[in-house]
Design a protein that fits this description.
- The protein is of the alpha+beta class.
- The chain has helices at 12-17, 19-26, 75-88, 118-123, 129-146, 159-169, 176-185, 223-236, 242-260, 267-283, 295-310, 316-321; strands at residues 29-34, 42-48, 51-57, 96-100, 105-109, 116-117, 191-193, 202-204, 210-212, 219-221.
- The strands form three sheets. The protein has a five-stranded antiparallel β-sheet.
- Helix 5 (129-146) packs parallel to helix 9 (242-260) and helix 8 (223-236) packs antiparallel against helix 9.
- It is globular.
């Protein structure tokens, strides 16, 4: 068995202890490599004669930011979310093969196959209106499936996590409109949502179907959070191309409404959530988001977004253009 050297290779003894489950799933193991790009957890690709699986290990610090501390036991939340979501949509989410709480480790299937991550597709300008509508319809279908189910991931009904997540993403800006949004959302219906629809957590497999992973932030929240979060990232990946951004966002929303309906999404909430997440991504210096823009452009975007928020209900065209 070969283990590629690099960050995380100190876990070879941990991985060797679980070689039996690896070989059960992929046959004789031919190589284990570190999956780059992770922020919180350490992720490994295990290749064998019969395929590939992934292993996720949570430690006491962020994998990419070791000065930030975390609780390894919290990987249990992702384990719970994986079981729930992969049971409902086995074609979309990874299947959990094994969970080892004593090692804070999950073994799961390969959800992306030979496909590509959405952030790569967006960066290469290969994401079409049809793709956006298809992805929107999938997210709407997932939301619709769990709409009337009282499901949460954590024992307190996710209330503490729900509050902390909104404060972390939106509240720290101390923006009056975003503070008001947080208050409104607290009175609106909550259900199971995915929580982190960053393009790096979405794949397009070799058959052109979307897959989703990294479910540690899944919780009982507001559906508008997922939709606005994804819309914000699509806009950010189309900076300087407002025409494309407008078409993609329109297609995303129409696809979503085709399967989830419009009733549960307030238009003003959606605009403000989208703007709030754009602000979060351009202002967050602790956990920066990779974008092909300069520091000066990030500052200009965040300033313009703040002005758009002050309008309370700006035009979508202005949102994607960052113009007043």
């Amino acid at each position: 068995m070969k283990f590629s050297q690099g960050k995380g290779s100190q876990d070879i003894s941990l991985l060797n202890r679980h070689m039996d489950i690896f070989e059960e799933k992929v046959g004789k193991v031919t190589g284990i490599s570190v999956v780059p790009g992770g922020l919180v957890n350490h992720v490994y690709r295990v290749g064998g004669e019969q395929g590939t699986i992934y292993v996720k290990v949570r430690k006491t610090e962020f994998s990419a930011l070791p000065h930030l501390r975390i609780n390894p036991a919290d990987i249990r939340d992702e384990s719970v979310a994986l079981d729930i979501l992969s049971s409902a949509f086995p074609e979309v989410f990874p299947r959990q093969f094994a969970f080892y709480p004593e090692d804070s480790m999950i073994v799961m299937s390969n959800a992306i196959g030979a496909g590509s991550r959405l952030d790569e597709v967006l960066r290469n300008r290969e994401f079409s209106d049809t793709d956006a509508a298809k992805l929107g319809a999938l997210i709407g279908k997932i939301h619709a499936r769990f709409k009337d189910m009282d499901i949460s991931i954590r024992e307190d009904g996710d209330l503490e996590y729900y509050t902390r997540n909104l404060e972390y993403r939106l509240g720290y800006h101390r923006n009056p409109e975003l503070d008001s949004l947080i208050s409104r959302l607290g009175t609106e219906p909550r259900q199971l949502i995915l929580g982190d629809l960053s393009p790096k957590n979405i794949g397009i497999d070799e058959n052109g179907e979307f897959t989703i992973w990294d479910l540690e932030i899944a919780h009982k929240g507001n559906t508008v959070f997922d939709l606005g979060f994804l819309a914000a990232h699509i806009i950010l990946h189309n900076i300087g191309n407002s025409g494309s951004a407008t078409k993609l966002i329109n297609a995303l929303f129409e696809g979503y409404y085709s399967t989830a309906g419009r009733k549960d999404i307030n238009e003003i909430d959606l605009k403000q959530m989208t703007l709030g997440i754009i602000l979060f991504r351009t202002r967050n210096n602790v956990i920066p988001y990779t974008l092909d823009v300069s520091v000066e452009d990030r500052h200009q975007i965040s300033e313009t977004v703040s002005l758009l928020l002050s309008q309370r209900d700006p035009l979508w065209l202005d949102v994607v253009r960052y113009k007043i």
